[in-house]
């Protein structure tokens, strides 16, 4: 039976955890061998879809996959700042470098990444952020 639920806890090192099903009932055991996505992506509160089976010790999940919710915080085609304006809409400020420096851009980008993908680690955010800043400089989107 296909079900949904949220990860209560998952120990990536030990390779197991538990899911709280959306429908009332007891918690469901989950094992790393039954994950369809990379195990580092499963965190407390992650919404999952799974097949419910009865194991030797109770309910067990199989074919577990993450359910990604649509987000209103997706990265836009052009950098957008917290006031909602894109760099292309602010040519005078962009030309002068006023308020569009790499520092501010990094801050805004970090906020977007954290709000968009809650499973990113700090190291992953730093890697993505630095590459995007580098690309923005190459394309002339950042003048500072």
TrEMBL record:
It holds the Pfam family CSD. Residues 2-66 form the CSD domain. The keyword Transcription does not apply. SMART domains: CSP. Residues 86-97 have a biased composition (Low complexity). Residues 77-101 are annotated as: Disordered. One of its GO terms (molecular function) is DNA binding. Keywords: DNA-binding. This is DNA-binding protein. It comes from Streptomyces malaysiense.
């Amino acid at each position: 039976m296909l079900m949904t639920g949220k990860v209560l806890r998952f120990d990536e090192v030990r390779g197991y955890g538990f899911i709280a099903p959306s429908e009332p009932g007891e918690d469901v055991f989950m094992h790393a061998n039954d994950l369809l996505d990379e195990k580092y992506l499963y965190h407390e509160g992650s919404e999952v879809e799974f097949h419910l089976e009865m194991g030797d010790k109770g309910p067990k999940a199989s074919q577990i996959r993450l359910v990604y919710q649509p987000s209103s915080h997706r990265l836009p085609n052009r950098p957008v700042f917290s006031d909602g304006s894109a760099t292309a809409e602010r040519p005078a400020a962009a030309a002068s470098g006023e308020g569009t420096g790499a520092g501010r851009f990094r801050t805004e980008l970090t906020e977007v990444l954290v709000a968009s993908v809650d499973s990113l680690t700090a190291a992953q955010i730093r890697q993505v952020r630095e590459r995007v800043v580098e690309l923005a400089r190459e394309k002339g989107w950042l003048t500072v």
